[in-house]
Amino acid sequence: MKKKRLILLSAMLAVCTSCSQLPGSSSSSAEISKSSTSAAGINWLQPNQMRPAMLHMKDMTTTKEVKRGAALTVPFLYQPLSLQRLPVQDEQGNTVPLEELLRSADTDGFLVLHEGKIVYETYFHDMKSSDLHGMASVSKVFTGLLVSLLTGEKKLSLSASAAEYVPELRGTPFGKATLQQLLDMQVSAMYPTHGFQQEGLANQDAQLYLASHQLPRPFGYEGPDSILGMLREARETDSPGAAFAYNNGSTETLAAVLRRVTGRSLSDLVSTRIWRKLGAEQDAMYVTDPTGAEQASAGFNATLRDMGRFGQMMLRNGSYHSKRVIPAAVVQEIRQHGDQEIFSRSTAAAKRPDYSYHNQWWLTNNEHGAFEVMGSYGQRLYIDPAAEMVIVQFSSRAIERAETDAAMVEAYRQITGALLKS
């Protein structure tokens, strides 16, 4: 019996050889490294690890750069307003200054543009303006825009199935779906758990992170070793087009189509078709799986200001500083369409009753025609055309709270009102 215990202990220690710490010990952001946070290391989704990971993703997993190129960066003009003191309501309904709400919401960076100028920019928790930050599902819009661009160039057909471009997906729910159904999140699918479950973490997110080697794998893990492998084992729960079903797999499938049709990486496509044309300040980057495929649905990292530039370009119907980045028709298509009826029948409608979803964007359908994209852990890009306002929020909110999300939505309305009065 003693010998068996020694063998078991040796095996446990072998599993932990690439860990920087034993379970239960703590780690500061300065100790984060690729070896200590790899698939054999710590779970970065824990509250004490979320912020170091969101700000140092390059040190914890494999990535690909999205090059900014040699384009001239046009600095923002500043017209500061004292929005940090703007009265807003916190999660309990108490009136507090905006800055206090942002801090309690685990915000890392917050940017407000009005008429193209920075009116408010603030950082918390030692984040700097030059730091890249993980953006979770905000990442999805870049893949959506690229699909729209290639469709306009007649290189893709939105009525074609994904399997026509990626035959390996034939017979899967994502392969059966048309590109338009994938863009509009109308593919219902689920994935095996492979023995991994974590409270508060959706299984589709868990499987994406596991396939990308972004989470510690459970002992005996026999799941996919790539994002494409994850897509191939998905199981259909409803026919494509029958329901709104927000799923990372739809975006990952579109990214696979883009790579196959162009023969180029997603990083290269975003760089040449969008990032360089914006005159971004910094290179961006994608998290990748072991095959080098980018995590299209959740792996984009960029600076706060560069995402402000991107949002301003979308606000201006595809132009930035009089330079055409994407066709105006691409932005107009996003803003003018969206199936509210199919969305109203989804579980997502409970939190967003007036919304719809189109081409990887959430449409508020409010009186200002605002549209946005949101990501887990408190990421958001919000664009209000009527108010000529763009808001970018980066956060490290390991524990999602409905009250916090509701308070932030209301705060955005308060900011809009303040800008319209200024």
Q: Which CATH-level-2 architecture of the domain at 83-132 and 304-421?
A: 3-Layer(aba) Sandwich
| Form type | globular
Strand order of the largest sheet: 5-4-17-16-15-14-13
Query: What is the name of the CATH class of the domain at 83-132 and 304-421?
Result: Alpha Beta
User: Helix fraction?
Assistant: 25-40%
Let me know the CATH homologous superfamily of the domain at 83-132 and 304-421: DD-peptidase/beta-lactamase superfamily
Low-pLDDT parts are 1-40
Nearest-angstrom radius of gyration? 21 Å
Largest sheet: 7 strands, antiparallel
Mean pLDDT: 90
What percent strand? 15-25%
Structural class: alpha+beta
What is the third-level CATH name, the topology of the domain at 83-132 and 304-421?
Beta-lactamase
Oligomer designation: single chain
- What's the total number of strands? 17
Our measurement of the CA-to-CA distance between the termini, rounded to an integer number of angstroms, reads 77 Å
Alpha plus pi helix count: 15
Give a topology summary.
Blueprint: H1 2-15, H2 47-55, H3 57-60, E1 63-66, E2 87-89, E3 95-97, H4 98-104, E4 107-114, E5 117-123, E6 133-134, H5 140-152, H6 173-176, H7 179-183, E7 188-190, H8 203-211, H9 227-232, E8 235-238, H10 248-262, H11 266-278, E9 284-287, E10 300-302, H12 304-315, E11 319-320, E12 323-324, H13 328-336, H14 340-344, E13 356-358, E14 361-363, E15 371-375, E16 379-384, E17 389-395, H15 402-421
Antiparallel strand pairs: 1-9, 2-3, 4-5, 4-17, 6-10, 7-8, 9-10, 11-12, 13-14, 14-15, 15-16, 16-17
InterPro entries: Beta-lactam-related (IPR001466), Beta-lactam/transpept-like (IPR012338), Diverse_Enzym_Activities (IPR050789)
Keywords: Signal
Protein name: Beta-lactamase family protein
